[in-house]
Structures are given as structure tokens and as C-alpha cells.
Design brief:
This protein is α+β, with helices and mostly antiparallel strands. Strand 9 and strand 10 form a beta hairpin. Helix 3 crosses helix 4 and helix 8 packs antiparallel against helix 9. It is globular and about 65 Å long.
């Protein structure tokens, strides 16, 4: 999936096959923007969004994506984003309606709440597919549109199991409020969460398009268990550390006023471990696995994000964002984006300009089919 932090690319097989084997080389992605420049865009976007009660947020998103895409350089050429902010606004309005329906449904009646949950469950995979098609279909490199051709059926196979697992406890609580223990029944399904995550990643990575070329994805689902296991151990360590701090603090305070600070310290430790250690570790390992097993004819992607360095970066970003009351946020976004680009390598057989020129001669028909029914963008 092409996101703000994961720009994909592709090449044509016929063009690269003409190049000698020893012509294979690695291309580097580079970000030419900087935090101060993006800070100005961010401030204007924020002020206009507040002044228009959120309506301008769709145009703000287009400006943000265009800034990052146009400053993402590969082999001397930049990416671009062509999305219509009106489609994004429609998606956001739909998101607000869906979230409001989910939040207030059970206030009317249990039956209505269950109907809303069922509707969201059925609609969610379709909307996620539409968001992917919108984002990728409106992204280009050297004048050629990217795309996504995953089917509706494949979207349901990928997204329905995790959505069902996530919503089931709430549905059981609504149906049987006098038996809250029933909400724990779906918990064993979370043992399959790495496999569900792997299926979503396969759906995202195996259906990318660049011109007339499809991506290939060769990662085994079972390899997702190791990142989850390590992240889980980090989380358990955080809980243990928080409990230890709470116990020592309670003993040292002797039941005095200082006891009031013990839960706060324990909570900070847990948040740090989960958000700044376990979370970044999971992001790095999954990104490395997924992108390093994604390829196009004549091109191989390789992600080498270092976990420790990313944890340090996220810790620094979090601290500076808190200390500046949120004003460091744009600089943090740029730092993370630049870091991830610097560790995404693209190995190409032959010359990328010749390959793109060859793809351009046959991309128009594919572009029409990809453009058909882009869907509404729902991402915030």
C-alpha cells in the first residue's frame, strides 16, 4: 500500500529484460522538504480548518500529500498527488455519520445498535478498498499513475475477520449486559491476529499497479508471529515495570500523600513502553518484512528500518512534541518520513527512464480501468 510513509514503485518487464544483468543497481529515495517549510503549511492548514469548522481539512490533506509526494525524489523525478479534495470531504462527512451512528446507536435500542454494527461490519472492507484505490490511483511518478486492483471479494476476505473480532465483544455486551464475562469469548481469536494482519498486508501489497505492471508479494503469513511475540514481551515488560514502580513507590510513600503520584508514574511507564517501544518495534519489523517481499518485474524493494534508531526517533519526537505543546508535530512528521525513505531501497534491473517510457506507451487503457470507481477516500 502506498501511504505517506511507504511510497511504492514499479517497472516494466520488457524494458528491463533488454538491459544486461550487470546493469542492476540500487536507487535511493530522497526527501527534499524540511520541517520549517512543512510547519508553515501545517499552521495554515490548521487555522483554516478551525476557521471553517473542519470543512477545509479536505483541502488541507491534499496540500499535505502534494507537499510530501512532490518532495519525494526517485532517480531525479518526484511523485505527485492529484486527489480531488471534494471526494475527501465526502469521505470525511461519511466517516462522521458512521462514527456518530456507532457511538449513539445503542442509546436508541439494542436492536438498532446491533443493526448498525452489522452494517459497519459489512461496509468496512468495501470502504477500505475504496480508500486504497483513491490514494494510489491519484498518485503518479514520471506522469504515470499508480493503482490498486484488489477485488471487493478479496477486500472482504482480508478485512472482515479482524473487524468481526474487534466488534464482537461490544456486541456480546450489548446482547447480554447481565453476563459481561461473555465479552471474553472472542479473546482466543486474537491469537490469530498476526495471521489476520498478514492477510491485510497481502491484500495491500499484492495488488499494486504501475502502468501495466502488477506487483508480486511472496511473504509467508506465519512470519508475522515473531514481531507480535517480541512486541508482546515488551508490553508485558512494561506492565511488570509499572507494577514494580507502583509497589516500590507505595512502600516508600508509606501511605502518605506521595501515594497519589504512584499511579501516574506507573501509567507513564506503561505508555512509554507500549507507544514508544512496542509500537515502533512492530511498525519497523512489519514494514521491513512486507516491503522486502514486494516486487515488480525487474524491480525489488528492500526495507532496512533499524528498530532501535526508530524507537529513539519516536521517543525524541514525543518528548519535543509534549514540551512544545504540539508545535513540534510537523517537524516530527518530516523526521519520520525522511527516516523511512532513507531505509527503503529500490533495486532496478536496467534504466528506470527507459522502463517508464516503455510503460507509458501502454498505460492509458489500464489507467482507465483503474480510474473507474476510485471510491471515496475515508482516511483522515
Amino acid at each position: 500500500m502506498h501511504t505517506l510513509t511507504d511510497p511504492p514503485a514499479g517497472l516494466d518487464a520488457d524494458a528491463v529484460d533488454r538491459a544486461p544483468a550487470d546493469a542492476a543497481h540500487t536507487l535511493a529515495l530522497r526527501f527534499s522538504g524540511d520541517g520549517r517549510e512543512y510547519f508553515r503549511i501545517w499552521v495554515v492548514n490548521l487555522l483554516l480548518t478551525l476557521a471553517t469548522l473542519g470543512i477545509y481539512s479536505a483541502w488541507a490533506k491534499v496540500r499535505r500529500l502534494q507537499y510530501f509526494d512532490r518532495n519525494t525524489i526517485l532517480a531525479g523525478a518526484s511523485f505527485d498527488f492529484h486527489g480531488d479534495p471534494r471526494a475527501i470531504l465526502a469521505g470525511r462527512l461519511l466517516s462522521v455519520v458512521l462514527l456518530a451512528a456507532y457511538h449513539y446507536a445503542f442509546g436508541f435500542s439494542t436492536s438498532f445498535g446491533l443493526v448498525v454494527i452489522a452494517g459497519l461490519l459489512l461496509l468496512f472492507p468495501y470502504l477500505m478498498r475504496g480508500a486504497l484505490r483513491f490514494r494510489l490511483g491519484n498518485t503518479s511518478y514520471r506522469g504515470l499513475r499508480l493503482g490498486f486492483d484488489g477485488s471487493v471479494g478479496q477486500a472482504y476476505l482480508a478485512w472482515m475477520p479482524p473487524a468481526f473480532t474487534f466488534l464482537m465483544p461490544g456486541a456480546l455486551l450489548a446482547l447480554y449486559p447481565e453476563q459481561p464475562e461473555l465479552a471474553a469469548l472472542p479473546l482466543p481469536l486474537y491469537l490469530l491476529w498476526p495471521l489476520m494482519h498478514a492477510r491485510i498486508r497481502r491484500f495491500q501489497h499484492a495488488h499494486l499497479l504501475f502502468g501495466g505492471q502488477h506487483s508480486a508479494y511472496a511473504l509467508k503469513a506465519r512470519r508475522f508471529y515473531k514481531p507480535y511475540l517480541v512486541a508482546g514481551l515488551l508490553g508485558i515488560g512494561g506492565v511488570f515495570g509499572a507494577g514494580l514502580v507502583a509497589g516500590i513507590g507505595a512502600w516508600a510513600a508509606g501511605g502518605g500523600k506521595a501515594m497519589a503520584f504512584v499511579p501516574a508514574v506507573a501509567a507513564v511507564i506503561m505508555v512509554y513502553v507500549m507507544y514508544l517501544l512496542a509500537g515502533p518495534y512492530m511498525v519497523v519489523r512489519v514494514a521491513n518484512l512486507a516491503w522486502s517481499h514486494t516486487s515488480f518485474p525487474g524491480i525489488r524493494l528492500r526495507s532496512t528500518l533499524p528498530a532501535r534508531a526508530f524507537m529513539k526517533l519516536q521517543t525524541k519526537n514525543a518528548l519535543l512534541t509534549v514540551l512544545t505543546l504540539g508545535l513540534y508535530r510537523p517537524f516530527a512528521v518530516v523526521a519520520v518520513y525522511r527516516f523511512r525513505l532513507a531505509h527503503l531501497h529500490i533495486e532496478v534491473d536496467g534504466d528506470i527512464e527507459a522502463a517508464c517510457a516503455h510503460v507509458a506507451t501502454r498505460a492509458s487503457a489500464v489507467g482507465d480501468s483503474v480510474a473507474d470507481g476510485f471510491g471515496i477516500d475515508l482516511s483522515w
